[in-house]
Amino acid sequence: MTAERTTAAVDAGRGSAPRVAVLADDLVWLSRLDVQLRAVGAEPVRASTLAALEAALGDVEAVIVDLTARRYDGIDGVARAAAAGCRVLAVGQHDDHRLRRRALDAGAERVFAYRKLFEDGPGTLARWLWTSAP
């Protein structure tokens, strides 16, 4: 989905741009996800710690969690966001099936490999963000 189609979807009745918290302590991924979310018509809210995520949870509809962080437990971030009623997408290593399963069990709707968001971030995020939760 292009940014133009996403913007048209917002204008066609979805209301204002959805606010999406991005929990990542890696500046590269935090910045990349920020840019990709803006490209699909969302408003990113940056968080690099669980405390920052907690502060944002009352004001966002969705959360993206980088699972391989050093400054926080990614599974805990997924669980907190899901418990707050947010849609949750996680991103992590493609070959860590155990971590992927734990993230899904904690409340993530999907877990994508870094490569998927690197190669088709805006399209992937738009499809996730603009479809109904499962």
Query: Could you list the spans in which at least 5 consecutive residues all have pLDDT below 50?
Result: 1-14
Spatially, the strands of the biggest sheet line up as: 2-1-3-4-5
Average pLDDT score: 88
Instruction: Assign a percent range to the helix content.
Output: 40-55%
Q: Care to count the β-strands?
A: 5
C-alpha geometry: globular
Count of individual helical segments? 6
Order of helices and strands: HEHEHEHEHEH
**CATH architecture designation:** 3-Layer(aba) Sandwich
Could you say which structural class the secondary elements and strand pairing correspond to?
A: alpha/beta
**In CATH terms, what is the fold-level topology?**
Rossmann fold
Strand content: 15-25%
- CATH homology group: Response regulator
Give the biggest sheet.
5 strands, parallel
Alpha-carbon distance between the two ends: 19 Å
Instruction: Quickly count the domains.
Output: 1
Report the top-level CATH class: Alpha Beta
Rg measurement, Å: 14 Å
